[in-house]
């Protein structure tokens, strides 16, 4: 009964304010941070194809701990993908709490965004749209990796060659969503205090430029790598 009261009223049975929203917010931030860092590593990983098939397969071998288990440990990367999928789904459902719940809320937010023309609000809107797309595209990709067996340059090239538009779109969705998310995490959890409003705004702008710049550079490299993947037979 106490959980029912808390869910409806946002207060505990003793009328104290519920701590659940704060807990969910922290968990959403944590899962988002894990996924954003994973995307950085993933872009670096797939971009090793620019150094050749042997370099990519060597990285796969290291990830599969072949130096300990030999060639039979391909399932390690599948388990990692399964763990990331759990984090991904958890993050998605936590993030859905902040999505417009109906058409009226959507229209209110759209009107608010168009009136104030605030950059951070527009970035949140892009994050919302790419997050919605990623729920389907990212899930499909992760499920494919979990049940796809051994990863190698040859199998990866076959995937890229078959679904080239899908992987190019997935890269764009991931980079936009993760980069905005990392910037918003910084603003939300790190101090941006200053002696005045201008100094605080300067810190925000610097943080945004650094985060978007890092993801942007890696995205360009990963995009070039994607075209290399598509060209492999």
Question: What does this 3D model show about the protein?
Answer:
This protein has 233 residues and is mainly alpha-helical. Helices cover 79% and strands 0% of the residues. The radius of gyration is 21 Å and the shape is globular. The model has no long low-confidence stretch (mean pLDDT 84).
Radius of gyration of CA atoms, rounded to a whole number: 21 Å
N→C terminal distance:
61 Å
For the largest beta-sheet, the strand count, sense and barrel status come to: none
What is the percentage of strand-forming residues?
A: under 5%
Mean pLDDT rating: 84
Regions with little confidence, pLDDT below 50 for 5+ residues: none
Helix content range = over 70%
Q: Structural class, please?
A: mainly alpha
- Total strand count, please? 0
**Topology pattern, helix = H, strand = E:** HHHHHHHHHH
Shape: globular
User: How many helices in DSSP terms?
Assistant: 10
List keywords for this structure.
mainly alpha, 79% helix, globular
What can be said about this structure in brief?
79% of the residues lie in helices and 0% in strands. The chain has 233 residues and is mostly helical. Helix 2 (20-47) packs across helix 5.
SSE topology sketch:
Blueprint lengths: L1 H8 L10 H28 L5 H11 L2 H4 L5 H21 L7 H14 L2 H28 L6 H10 L1 H26 L7 H35 L2
Helix pairs in contact: 2-5, 2-9, 2-10, 5-7, 7-9, 8-10, 9-10
């Amino acid at each position: 009964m106490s959980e029912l009261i808390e869910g409806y009223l946002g207060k505990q049975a003793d009328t104290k304010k519920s701590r659940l929203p704060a807990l969910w917010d922290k968990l959403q931030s944590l899962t988002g941070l894990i996924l954003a860092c994973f995307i950085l590593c993933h872009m670096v990983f797939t971009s090793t194809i620019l150094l050749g098939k042997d370099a990519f397969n060597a990285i796969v071998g290291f990830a599969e701990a072949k130096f300990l288990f030999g060639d039979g440990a391909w399932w390690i990367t599948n388990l990692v993908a399964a763990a990331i999928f759990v984090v991904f789904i958890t993050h998605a459902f936590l993030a859905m709490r902040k999505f417009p719940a109906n058409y009226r809320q959507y229209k209110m937010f759209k009107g608010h965004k168009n009136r104030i023309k605030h950059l951070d609000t527009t970035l949140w809107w892009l994050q919302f749209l790419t997050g919605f797309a990623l729920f389907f595209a990212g899930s499909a990709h992760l499920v494919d990796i979990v049940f796809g067996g051994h990863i190698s340059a040859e199998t990866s090239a076959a995937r890229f060659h078959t679904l080239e538009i899908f992987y190019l779109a997935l890269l764009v969705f991931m980079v936009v969503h993760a980069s905005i998310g990392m910037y918003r995490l910084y603003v939300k959890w790190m101090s941006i205090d200053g002696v005045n409003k201008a100094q605080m705004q300067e810190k925000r702008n610097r943080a945004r430029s650094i985060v978007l710049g890092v993801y942007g550079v890696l995205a360009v490299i990963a995009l070039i790598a994607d075209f290399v993947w598509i060209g492999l037979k």
